[in-house]
């Protein structure tokens, strides 16, 4: 495994399994904790922690008030940020965000935009005067591959946990008034779920790759779908090309994965909802 890691993996792949015992199309154990049951970010308006095997990601959403942009007077803002601190893996260093963190942040921003999970018009409080800004901080605590799937899941779970207070503008003073006693859940219009694959030897696809598998792969691809089976995004940063048939296989598996994740998140939210 140390001297010839690729050959070591190929021996397992020929038998349609992996060194960790999983089949090629099998995901690692996935868990999610939402909100206060986390004992995590008490200052956030919504939070979630997701574990995908050893990969652990936490997401905190902070809502603030701001004036809308002049050219988007009826829209609020969503600002995602992915952090890969040095504590999560030896490959990352302290300091400004590296290339991988920046690429992940852009990917999350694209998923939010393409899936329309949150419509920015829903974040507007008073046209041209006041709107919500959602700062979505996604921090990797332990990195063992497949950051994108875990990040999208953590973001979705955290957003479903957000409760925004009622805000009105006093017509006499022109100042905003916040009613913390009356809160409403954030409107989530779509539920995007990411499913990532690693490509081995240009032809073989394995789902939910570990960090070691990502390093040995000849390429990766991430498919994002919503609850209607609609394709929201295909993220393929170079590497081996995919045939149309292989891509369709990925999309079909992604749709199945979406049902699994939706079922999991619904179960957790039901368990923490006051009866």
From TrEMBL:
Pfam families cross-referenced by the UniProt entry: RNase_PH, RNase_PH_C
Residue stretches making up the Exoribonuclease phosphorolytic domain: 26-165, 192-255
Single GO molecular function: mRNA 3'-UTR AU-rich region binding
GO cellular component assignments: cytoplasmic exosome (RNase complex); nuclear exosome (RNase complex); nucleolus
Sorted UniProt keywords: Acetylation, Cytoplasm, Exosome, Nucleus, RNA-binding, rRNA processing
Domain of life of the source: Eukaryota
GO annotation, biological process: exonucleolytic trimming to generate mature 3'-end of 5.8S rRNA from tricistronic rRNA transcript (SSU-rRNA, 5.8S rRNA, LSU-rRNA); nuclear mRNA surveillance; nuclear polyadenylation-dependent rRNA catabolic process; rRNA catabolic process; TRAMP-dependent tRNA surveillance pathway; U1 snRNA 3'-end processing; U4 snRNA 3'-end processing; U5 snRNA 3'-end processing
Protein location: Cytoplasm; Nucleus, Nucleolus
Family according to the record: Belongs to the RNase PH family.
PANTHER family from the UniProt entry: EXOSOME COMPLEX COMPONENT RRP43 (PTHR11097:SF9), EXOSOME COMPLEX EXONUCLEASE RIBOSOMAL RNA PROCESSING PROTEIN (PTHR11097)
UniProt-recorded name of the protein: Exosome complex component RRP43
Source organism of this protein record: Pycnonotus jocosus (Red-whiskered bulbul)
Lineage of the species this protein comes from: Eukaryota, Metazoa, Chordata, Craniata, Vertebrata
Gene that this sequence comes from: Exosc8
